[in-house]
Amino acid sequence: MKKLLILAMSAMTLFSVNLSTAYAEPYQVSITNLTRGQIFSPVFAMTHNRQQSLFTSGEAASPELAALAQDANTDALTDLLSNSAHVHQISQGTGVIQPGQTASLIINSHHRARFISLASMLVSTNDAFIALNKFKLPRRSVSIMIPAYDAGAEANDESCAYIPGPPCGNANSASAEEGEGFVHIHSGIHGGGDLNVAQHDWRNPVAKISIRRIKKHN
Description:
The protein has four helices and eleven strands; from the N terminus they run H-E-E-E-H-H-E-E-E-E-E-E-E-H-E.
């Protein structure tokens, strides 16, 4: 089984897709982990137009988003969205975000791509993730508090056999018991399996997202 930390060591990858970069507008995006004991996987972020999004609440997660939520694996999501005519750029973080820490990345927007979406797994869960979904980029700066979502892709049995983060370390292995089948707000850790509630549970919001437009100097 692959360890989560192997995924965390992947280098930052930037993609410019379909739209011209002649009028690119850079933004700094910072993600702060507000939980006590949940590690966030390397962040996946993209800028896009209003036709694109990561998911629709109350509907089934795509298999590509489910892979991120279950195993912190962004390969399939990157392959899918890098071929979308609605996506301008994809940027991925370089490492995990520990509780209380902040990580930042730079991503470009475009006058035809004024929205941002991002996602990251809470690694000591079955399929919990944070997300900013189809958010309008600010003219200057903005901060948003966001909750944890449940991808609904597998049952929240809290068994180490299906959890990539500590204390488990088992990625690429999903529970055979199906989840709710739709994306919804996660209800946290309840102690029904191998996870310590005092260490791994949380109350929403779980993350602070700060977005700042970077001024370009001539």
